[in-house]
Write a structure and sequence with these properties.
The chain is mainly α and 91 residues long. 53% of the residues lie in helices and 0% in strands. The longest helix has 15 residues. The mean pLDDT is 93.
Length: 91
């Protein structure tokens, strides 16, 4: 079961990328470049949208990891999740 934050990430990806990961059987396992047919420009646009949606900063190093061949939606989530505020910080 996906969390609300993961669902938001997938929604943002769906508006930024060629193929919406929400339409896949297991969207977290989808490869960003291969399964979602995304190129480097798509990834940069997606990252900018994710930064805006989550109010976080994603480093150039992390962008390179997301843009790497074989990187999955789960890999992207694993880079974003630690940057999100905890409930204690949000409240």
């Amino acid at each position: 079961m996906l969390t609300k934050q993961q669902q938001l990430m997938l929604a943002v990806m769906g508006t930024s990328l060629v193929i919406d990961p929400r339409g896949l059987p297991d969207p977290m396992k989808a490869q960003i470049k291969e399964d979602l047919q995304s190129d480097s420009l798509d990834v940069v646009e997606m990252v900018m949208s994710l930064e805006e949606a989550f109010k976080i900063e994603i480093t150039d190093e992390d962008i390179e990891k997301i843009d790497a061949e074989g990187a999955t939606v789960q890999d992207c989530w694993d880079l974003i999740a630690p940057k999100l505020p905890t409930d204690a910080e949000a409240g």
